[in-house]
Structure formats: C-alpha cells, structure tokens
Design a protein that fits this description.
The chain has about 475 residues and is an alpha+beta fold. It contains 12 helices and 21 strands. β14 and β15 form a beta hairpin. The protein binds iron/sulfur cluster (SF4).
Length: about 475
C-alpha cells in the first residue's frame, strides 16, 4: 500500500521519473508540441481573494475523452497567492512546472512557455491518471517546495477555443517579463545567477544568467534569478559572485568559472558567455534555438524548435539539437534563448549577427527589430536556399559580410603536413575542436613513396571519417 503525500495518486510520483521519455507508440495523447501552433504555460501571482485554494479546472475534455494518438492545443494556467510572493518570482515558479510534471510517472514535459510539449502514456491513463490528478500533484509539490505559496489553483485548457482565447495574453506577459531586463548590462551588476534545474537531463550543464545573457530556456531572466535566489538561496537557482573579469570581450568571469567547475565536478572549467567557440556556455536540452556551424561558408545558421523542415546543412532541429545538447561545449553548436539573440552581447566575439548566415523565416520575422538593418536582406531563409551550395551563392550574390571573411581565410578548416621521404611517420592531425570533426582524431600512418619533400593541404568539411589506413600516392604528371 502506498504511503506519503501521494498515497491517493494512481501512479508513482518522484524525481526518479525525471528524464522518462514517452515514445509515440506508447503515447495516449500529446498536449502542445510541434504539431500544434498554440500552447502555453503561465503562472501568475494574484491577490488571495481571487484564488480558491485547491481548485482545479479542466476547460475542455480531460485525457480519457481525448482521441488516442492525437496532438491537441494545450494550456496550463496556474494562479498563486501568498503574502511574501513578488511578481519577479513568476518566471521561476512557472519554470518549476517542468520538473514537477516530470516527477509524475507516465507524464512527460518538455520545453517551456509557448513551446511546451507534453505527453501522457497509455499505461498511466489506464491506471487512472487524468489532468485533474496532475493538478493535485502539482499543487502539493508547489506548496511543499515553496511554502511561501499559500493558495494555488490550476486551470488546464484542452478546448482549442479556450487555448486560442488566452494564448495571446500569455505571449504579452512573456514579452513584458523579458522587457524588464533589456537595458541592464552585465558590467553594472556584481552578481550573476546560476541554474542547475536541467542537470537531471544534462549533468554537466549550468546556466549562467546575466542581464545580457538570458537563460537557454528563455524562461529565466537575471531578475527572475535574483528573486528565486532570495527566496531559496540553497535551491537550484543561486547567486554567483562575478569576481574578476578575465576577458571582457568574451564575457569570462572568475566567479562563474569557479562555480561551474564545482557544480559540474570539474567537467567544465571555463565558460565564456558571448561566444559559440572555444569555451562556449554549455547547452542543456531546453534551449529555444541553437546555432549550427556551416563550415563551407564559415558561418552559423540558427534554427529554433518550431522549425520542422531541414536546414541547408540537411539536418533538422532535432538532429542539430542532438549534436548540441547534454551539457557539452561543442564549437559552433550552441544552444540559446531567443532573448539572448536580442542582446547587444549576442555572440559578440564571433562577430555577432554578421556571422549568422541562415535563419528560418518565422524566426527572422521575430528578430526583425534586432537584426542590423543593413544585414536583414542578406540573411537567407528556407524560402531562399535549400542547400549549402545555394546558401553560398546567396551569400555571395547579396554580399553578406561573411564573404569578406572568405577572402581572409580562403581555406576554412585545413591542416598542412610536411612529408619527409623514406621513413614512416605517424601523424595526428591538429583538427579544430568541432563536434563533427572530433571523431577524426585517431592517428593514421602515412607511408610516403616520394623522393623529395613536398607539402600537402588536406581540407575536411563537415565530414565523419573512419579509416584504418591512409595511403597517399603521388600522381604521375
Ligand atoms: S535552461 Fe538553464 S535556466 Fe532554464 S531551467 Fe534549464 S538550467 Fe535552468
């Protein structure tokens, strides 16, 4: 017999279920996700008299009555009240929906805000799990983890008309929250905030949240971090003293390095906030968008979650995200939030927007105000180019600033090898540390049959090579 605070819940609840994935064949229903355009989760702090503690409402059908295998527009609206609650805490408390939902056996929650993607599995539904029960679990978790919440009521929306009605309000509230931090600068503050909420999925990931580098998930700003750390300084969101600045341009701080090293048990030792190369900020899996390096043009594309087609490199968002996520630092493959793309510090070491060579049309529209005017028409979308060759031509024809870079570096990724005759040499190529190229680092044996010293240039572009031997023969003539 089950005991404890979830004894009456028909499925198990616990951190052990975080990271549980529900694949399509096992799924009863999908709530939100990439197939529907309108979905959101929103938490508001409101006056106590407007909150009926413990109330749960489902506007539309609960899961048992939803068609099996369907994907539906979805909303979660949480209203909380408490004397000590401040409006700055809304974003952080809202973000806890992610881990709290994932504690529930047979229930999966991905992403945040208007990108949420939830699935409930068939087994959980057959055991009796409903949205109403999810609501009960969430209310208990919120109250036990954040005792300053005195009252809480939750509304789930599965009726598409109800979702549509409230969707725009949610978007406006997100925008209002984000706008509060714009204008603040990293150099004006002594403290950044760290977040380890995603370590259950990406154990070597720590978000460093500064005024000018919003968290990867796009759900937690510096102000949100400050509010969360004030309420629960030992919680997953905490203050980071900046200490000495080691590199102003790259955004590297002694205090951030120290904390990251501690929180990742030494796995990550350095992070530079404003670059996608060298020591980039790690990428968990919740990022709203990610860059992908295109070696043929020495630029980066950016693709966001809602883009379901292939990028010019032939890869989808999912495939690129797999190369990026997991708490790693992969050159050129860099998870980020849309808000960071609006920051004046956006990839400033890498040349900022001048290094961006491709964007999905939808994302380009969202960023219209933030892309330098003279560059806007020079960045192609899926409507302009489909392949890397087309991308290259477009950039050339439209005189994208990256073209100047090509002139400076004719060969993008190259290695030179001087081969001395009549002996066998083991060569370990000094390849750049890009995720794709790392796999070519096995030593290869070169047995030359040449009679004089010659220099060769090898150029590798976006390849994976596995070879036991490399034989180089001089071409006659
Ligand atoms: S992406 Fe970063 S800020 Fe957002 S929940 Fe994960 S660790 Fe926290």
């Amino acid at each position: 017999m089950k005991t404890g605070m979830f004894a009456d819940i028909p499925v198990d609840v616990g951190v052990v279920y975080e990271g549980e994935r529900i694949r399509k064949p096992k799924m009863h229903v999908e709530l939100g996700g990439p197939k529907v355009s309108e979905k959101f989760e929103l938490l508001r702090i409101i006056s106590p008299e407007k909150v009926e503690d413990g109330k749960i409402v489902v506007l539309g059908s609960d899961v048992q009555r939803l068609e099996e295998g369907s994907s539906i527009p979805f909303g979660i609206y949480v209203e909380v009240a408490g004397k000590e609650l401040e409006v700055d805490m809304e974003g952080v408390m809202e973000r806890r929906l992610h881990d709290f939902c994932n504690y529930i056996e047979g229930f999966m929650h991905l992403n945040q805000r208007n990108s949420i993607w939830l699935r409930m599995d068939k087994k959980a539904v057959s055991k009796g799990l409903t949205l109403e029960i999810v609501g009960k679990v969430l209310q208990r978790l919120f109250k036990s983890e954040m005792p300053i919440i005195e009252k809480i009521q939750i509304t789930f929306l599965t009726d598409p008309k109800e979702v549509e009605k409230r969707y725009q309000d949610a978007i406006q509230i997100y925008e209002k929250r984000d706008a509060r931090v714009r204008g603040m600068t990293d150099k004006d503050v002594d403290v950044f905030y760290g977040c380890t909420l995603c370590q259950s999925f990406a154990p070597t990931h720590v978000c460093v949240i500064s005024p000018q580098r919003y968290a990867n998930c796009g759900a937690i700003s510096w102000l949100d971090g400050r509010a969360a750390a004030k309420v629960d300084p030992k919680g997953p969101i905490f203050a980071i003293d900046k200490d000495d600045c080691l590199d102003v341009e790259a955004g590297e701080y002694e205090g951030a390095n120290r904390v990251i090293s501690e929180k990742t048990l030494g796995e990550i030792e350095r992070v530079q906030l404003y670059t996608a190369f060298g020591y980039p900020h790690t990428s968990c899996g919740c990022f709203e968008a990610t860059t992908f390096y295109v070696p043929e043009v020495d630029g980066m594309g950016i693709v966001h979650r809602d883009f379901t087609d292939s990028t010019p490199s032939g890869l989808s968002f999912g495939a690129i995200a797999d190369s990026t996520a997991g708490g790693r630092q992969v050159d050129g493959f860099h998870g980020l939030s849309l808000e960071y793309m609006k920051s004046p510090k956006f990839l400033q070491v890498d040349n900022g927007w001048n290094r961006i060579v491709w964007l999905p049309l939808q994302l380009k529209d969202v960023m219209k105000e933030y892309i330098p005017k003279e560059l806007f028409d020079k960045i192609p979308t899926e409507k302009d180019v489909q392949t890397v060759e087309e991308l290259k031509d477009f950039l050339k024809d439209n005189n994208h600033p990256i073209v100047e870079r090509w002139k400076e570096e004719e060969v993008i990724t190259s290695m030179s090898q001087t081969v001395t005759p009549e002996h066998t040499q083991t060569a370990t190529p000094p390849l750049p540390q890009t995720g794709i190229l790392q796999e070519i680092s096995q030593p290869s044996t070169v047995t030359p049959s040449l009679t004089k010293t010659e220099t060769f240039t090898f150029t590798f572009k976006n390849v994976k090579i596995s070879a036991e031997r490399l034989i180089i023969r001089k071409k006659e003539g």
